Amino acid sequence: MLSRPKPGESEADLLQFQNEFLSVKASPAVKIVKKADKRKGDLGSGDDDRPPLQHGRDVVMLDDFPDEPPPLTPGPPKKSRFKGTRVHFEEDPGEQLDRADQHITAVFNKIIERDTSSVRVTTPIFTGGPFPTVFHRSEIKHEAKSAPGRKSIFAQKIAAKRAAEGTQISVTIDCDATERMNAEVLEGASHPESLRAPFFGDEEKSPGSLSSGCPRIVTGEGLRSLAGEQEAQNIHKENLERLKSMSKEQILEEQKQLLAQIDPNLLAFLKSRHSTATTEGREEKREHEKPWKSMHSELQPALQQEKGEILNANLSQESIIEMQPDTEKSLRTEVSTKINVTDDDLPVKPQKEWLHMDSVEFEKLEWMKDLPQPRQKKTKKGMQARFSLKGELIPPDKDLPTHLGLHHHGEEAERAGYSLQELFHLSRSQVIQQRTLALQVLACVVQKAKAGEFATLLKGSVLQVLLDAGFLFLLRFSIDDSVENVVAAAIHALHALLVSSEDEEYLDKTFSWYQGMTFHPFTPNKEEEEDEEEEDNELKTIQKTVGRKSKDENKPDPEIARYDVVKGLLKTKILHRFRYLLEVMQPVPLVVLEILDILTFITRHSIEACSQVLNCPRLIETVVREFLPTQWSPRIAEPGQLLTSLHGVPCATAMKLIRVLASGGRNAAARLLNKFEMKSRLSRFIAEEPQDLPLRTEDAMRINTEAFRLWAVAAGYGQACDLYRDLYPVLMKVVPSLSQLASDFLINKSTFEVSIQRAAAVMTLLTQLTQTAGCRAELQAQLSRSDPEDGDPIPPPPITWSQVSGFRAIIESVLKQCLKDLSHLSSWQALQPLSAACMLYLGVYYSHCRQQPSVNAVDCLEEVEHLSSSVLLPLLSQPAMRTLWEMLRPCSAVCNPLSCSQAPESLPSISSLSCIGGKPPMSLLGSKSPFPFLTALLVLVNNITHIHKGLVGKYAAIFDEKGLENYLVQCSTSGPPYLAPSSAWLLRLEYHFQYFVLALAQKMADTCPDYSQHASLHHCVAMALLSRLLPGSEYLAHELLLGLIFNPKLIPEGKTGGPEAADLSDLLHLDSKAKSAQPGSAAVLSSLPSRGALLEDAFNHLPLIQSCYRSHFVYLEPALVRSRNLYQGRTHLVQSMLLPEAKGPILPSDWPYLPLISLYNKVTSTESQWAVLPSLPMDLVNTVTRNLQWALLLETWRASVLQDISAAARLARLMCIFLTGSNLFLEGPVHCYTAALLSLYCQSKVLDSLNLDAALPGLASFYDLYINLLEQFESVSFGDSLFGIFVLLPLQRRFSVQLRMAVFGEHVGTLRALGVPFQQFPLPLEKYLSPPEDNLSLLRQYFQTLVTGILQQKRCPILYVVAVGHINSFIFSQDSTTQEIDAARKNMLQKTWLLADEVLKRHLLYYKLPNKDSPVGFDLYKELPAIRMKYLCTTTKKEHRGDASVSDS
């Protein structure tokens, strides 16, 4: 048995083992089997086909390898292994014939060998040696001229050698060419016209030019030498003769046509070939230029002038033909690159003694020249933006010195600064300093772009350009860098892109406003696949959210980041990287603070983002452990400087991150308080005074303020209330000291603002604790009467009303102390946040006071009376309050939409509040804004008047303020504000003020008899506010619907002569234009109740109208419950401080028509179940009637609140009546109110604003709705005139011709039932006849329906007049027009002349003007005017006397 090879044995040992194995002739342990070739089928062959080894040697055998080489024939095509399994169809017989047919096309498919008989063959130069001589470039003498294209030295030597070899062979040929060229130049001098031909491309004649003797494109190559050259020469001569016979203009015209027909790729190839030939021709010319110049020196001046003109003409024509704006730039660049560089241009003179400088390549030393001067002249062309190292935009004409380091770039070397593309390239450099510098410059550019410094200087958005170029992922890659400096620069750039310190500052300031803890998520409104239709079901909304999540998971990161940057970042696992940076790398304090700011911004994005931050492994643990420690060693930093390391030191930014995380939901807050031990942190930073903490005073104040805010958020969920007992002594010490802040304003102004924010945070905390304690009695009652089967009830909070009621007197004294400085403007503006927070606390206290069993009602009423008499009423009488009311309008966001407009560089994929640069003092968030204080004042007044009804009349003076009245008038008349993340946040704060004004007005309407003078204004404001309230304020909308919108006391017109005034307006027709426009409108309603009677009936049914609308708003019930819990302070039921996304108002803009739209959608989406019933369900008729009653009431008495709904949208909503049920429009109340609304829509001012071509909300197009209306009219109209008017209304001449063609085309059957009489038609006929119809297809349809009898005067009188009028205007029109229309016009006139129906013939020929009083609807000529008679005779070839019989007939 043979042994196996062992380690260490050589190759000789292996060969010996092989010989031993072969000598034994044993069978191998492995049998080699040859697998069948897949392309040859199953030709299985194994070892049996292999021949035995010869002579005992190991011979390599190649199967199927022939002894002789095979002929060079194309190999067989490859066969597919799957071809046999495919489905085969029967072959087309035509393809079989084409394959078998051998006709002349087979000849063209064969390849013919090219003729090389005329090609010159050169033999190698005989050297006499065994091998050719090796070429060395030093043997060739250097020539001074430089070849075009910047060839290297070796290439120049090779070209010189080939030129020398070619010169020896073709000396005689060149001499002959030189003589022929000289002769042609002389001939050209005598005939300068040939030199001006537009086909010259260079100073010399190129092959194929007008004066050359040989063609340039067609050369005859490939044919027999003599025949090919002769044929090409004949073609060239024929072309020259044809060109000489044409003028210059004709040549240019033909050239343009030819270039337009040629394929662009072929044209580029021909131009490149022309340039190559021109370059070679120039090189050959230069060889013989000097002797030619010496022979013809006397012709040089004249020829030089001619050549310059030819070059200029060629350049201008080329730019005209190619229509390329970059032609001039490319030519200028080409000329600049061919400028020779000399020794004088270089700062260092090259010496021949230097190594390898015996042959100086000046082209390669061009970079050493001085930079050219930047362009000084201004140009309209856009130039590439370049930035300094500080991110500043450098003007293109600014000349900066080179030592600043702004010229290290290749493109536009003379300009200072770096473009974005160059900075992107530099950021991926392998040099650390370059990467860091590029990211730092990009961060500066982003900061200045967000500040709006480039808005007027650059075209487009810098930030959008950066994001489109992948800036976000460039930063993400850089954050993964291992170098700390690069990571710091990338974090700084990402912080500049996402975070706005001003936004966070104003969010902190409004934290203590009314409902200031809540905020809308920072989610972009414009998503890639945003659904416009609102969902009516909570389950559908959840399913939609889940579906969107699954879609986002399957999309790539760049696609997600394109419409939502935060989502794109979260998909890149950036949270895990932040955790690694904070836990392992431990960067410098500035980077730590920026990371915490970015995490805060991500947390504000959405509840999903908040959950991801909270669930990221060890991220929150690291933040709490490293930046919120309970014990730390004091560290001292220089004034104005940060610590060397922030790890192990408490940080207010980290506490703010925890607070924003807690705002995401009650579950997140519970996890933070319990799992991450934030309760102990709260006790640590609240129990000790800020000045006693081993931190800087300002840092200690900020972290103490954030601790109070975090506790307030937790108390808003009813959590962390067990800390109240432990920290009660601290609160009792802090709250009384707040009254001393007014005196501290003059002592320490530097920390006064931070102290005021801390005091407001304490008030907000006490407000939330009071709300939680106020819910204890309710929860205790539920617990006592709950059953075990109902589940676990909510336990009462560990805080009682008696424990929090003791702060009321203290806070009231603090409020009195603050209000003393109301007359001092500077100190009042500083103390205003604290005053507003105190009033909000008192308002919440009294709203829960009456509900507590332990509170004596009489004592509560006495406290309220004392507060009113001692604090509130004297406050309202102060002169400074009048100033606050007058500042409402200048500081309003509703009245001044530009104050909440988006920033210049705002991006749809990054939400921002647009507070960059700060808000002006006279704005909603400005220092002089009265909104926070007045809102808190109205909250307190509403709550105490709700307890004590007798105090309502004492606050009537509020509505007598002129400033408040002007503000409300402006709010009711202004259009809907633009909705964006920046405006939604501000508008919500202002809407709270408007709501409490209206809530107080409702109490005034119930108690004060002289309130009616303000009722109409307040009702208009309530209507406007209802259509503008944003998601999260459903409770306010519900309260408006219950107490204000349908309140008869806010609609005084119903009792003070409003219906009579409407009847008087209809009878007198005050508008003269409306009188002529609707002479028969009264006839329409002659048999119907008057508009006044309908208005009176609608006013009396306001409670039923209210219940109808409330039933249709039931889909908002889940959102209403969440909103009610938040506004009523039911802390145990509040789920989150994060509001829903503000993609639009709660109710649609056309909500007054919502019941009608809902019924229409219900009927059209399912099979109609009422079609077979003799009558419609009564509830359906009542619903439509209530909707029409409310619409008529608003159209008559509140027309201003419907100005946001276009006339076309209102008309489309009314058309839904005819599409809802088969005979709904025939019901008595529905028919009456629809006719009354139609009479309003037919007034001239409404008709002029009617635009059916504009996009209508909720409709794909008005055309589709109209087609449905026509189909319904054909089915169930019953000849109803009201239905017919709605069909005729969109057929006016100024509307789309498609509507008229639909009636006279596919739905021509409507003409048989559209019998609206002239006396009932409310529109003037001129709107259908002017201007004359110009659509030939429609005119032919008019004529066809008239001739065939489909359109008759008795069946459809209105459209009969329209068709006759347009046909008459068309056939007698003699305006110049196209030949087709003129022929159709004459043809139609001839057919009219030959009509057998004499009545129709007379109407078409003798039509004069529309007239509703006429039986046929128009006047007729007694005799045709002379010009028409002449034209008729000319067209029909009749004499005048022949036409007289027609006129008499």
Describe the structure.
By secondary structure, the protein is mostly helical. It has 64 helices and 2 strands. The chain has a two-stranded antiparallel ribbon. Helix 15 packs antiparallel against helix 16. The longest helix is centred in the last third of the chain and has 27 residues. It is flat and about 135 Å long. The C terminus is likely disordered.
Topology:
Layout: H1 11-24, H2 93-100, H3 105-108, H4 153-169, H5 171-190, H6 225-244, H7 248-261, H8 264-287, H9 289-295, H10 300-322, H11 327-337, H12 420-427, H13 432-450, H14 462-468, H15 471-479, H16 484-498, H17 501-509, H18 538-554, H19 557-563, H20 565-571, H21 574-585, H22 589-603, H23 607-615, H24 619-627, H25 652-662, H26 666-674, H27 678-687, H28 697-716, H29 723-737, H30 741-744, H31 752-774, H32 776-784, H33 801-804, H34 807-819, H35 825-849, H36 857-876, H37 879-886, H38 888-891, H39 931-947, H40 962-973, H41 981-1007, H42 1015-1026, H43 1034-1045, H44 1058-1068, H45 1072-1077, H46 1081-1084, H47 1091-1100, H48 1102-1112, H49 1117-1127, H50 1154-1165, H51 1178-1197, H52 1207-1219, H53 1228-1241, H54 1244-1248, H55 1262-1276, H56 1281-1288, H57 1297-1304, H58 1326-1329, H59 1336-1347, H60 1357-1371, H61 1379-1393, H62 1398-1406, E1 1407-1410, E2 1418-1420, H63 1426-1436, H64 1440-1448
Antiparallel strand pairs: 1-2
Helix pairs in contact: 12-13, 13-16, 15-16, 16-22, 19-20, 21-24, 22-25, 25-26, 25-28, 27-28, 27-29, 28-31, 31-35, 34-35, 35-39, 37-40, 39-41, 40-42, 41-42, 41-43, 42-43, 43-49, 44-47, 47-51, 48-51, 50-51, 50-52, 51-53, 52-53, 52-55, 55-57, 57-59, 59-60, 60-62
